[in-house]
Amino acid sequence: MNKKFEKLFIHFITENKENMYRLAFSYVKNDENALDIVQDTIHKALTSSETLKSEGSMKSWLYKILVNTSIDFLRKHKRIQFVDDKTLELHSPTGEDVYPDMDLEKALEELPHAFRTVIVLRYFEDLKIDEIAEVMNENLSTVKTRLYQGLRKLRIKMSDEIFEEVK
Asked: Are both 13 and 84 inside the same structural domain?
C-alpha cells in the first residue's frame, strides 16, 4: 500500500466514520455489532486496497464493502434486532431535527430489503445512483426502478398510517 493511498484512506475514514457506523447500525440495530462491522470493513478495505480502481470511487468502494459485510453478518447470525426509539435517538447525530412520532423508520423496516437498501444509501448516505449501482452490483436501471418503486411503496405505507390515525 502506498503512502498516498494510506493518507487518503485515513482521511476518508476519519471524515465518514459516523456515516459508516450509522449505515452498519441500520442493518444490525446493535452498537457493538455495528462497530465490529465498521472495523471489519476497514480491515477488508486495507487488505484489498489493490481492488480500488480509482481514488475518486473510494466512497462507493468502501460502502460496497460495508454493505456486504453487514449482509454477511446478518446471514451468519441469522437474526435481526429491533431497537426502541430511545436507543435510536442516542445514536442519531446531534444538531439534526428529531421527530420521535414519525413512523418512517418502521415503514422503512417493512420494505423489502432491496428497496430499503437503495433508499437508505440514496437519502441517508447521500450516494449518487451510479454509486449505489456499483455498491449493490446492479444495473443502473435496476437501481432507479427499485428507488422509485421503494419510494412509492413508502409513500403509500406512510399515507395509509396517517389515514389510520385520522380514523
From this structure: yes
What pTM value is reported for the model?
0.63
- The helix (H) or strand (E) run that includes residue 3 is helix 3-28
CA angle 34, 67, 144 (to 5 degrees): 135
The 10s digit of each residue's pLDDT in 115-147 is 888 888 888 888 889 888 888 888 999 999 999
State how many domains the chain has.
2
Residue 31 shares a structural domain with residue 88: yes
Q: Of 26, 72, 64, which Cα lies nearest the Cα of 45?
A: 64
The pLDDT of residue 89 is above 90: no
Q: Does 101 score more than 50 pLDDT?
A: no
| Cell numbers representing residue 94 in the block | 446531534
C-alpha closest to that of 147 among 137, 157, 133, 160: 133
Residue that is last in its domain, among 99, 118, 148 = 99
Q: Which set of grid coordinates corresponds to residue 14?
A: 476519519
If one counts every other C-beta atom within 10 angstroms of the C-beta of residue 38, the result is 21
Judgement on whether residues 89 and 7 belong to the same structural domain of the protein: yes
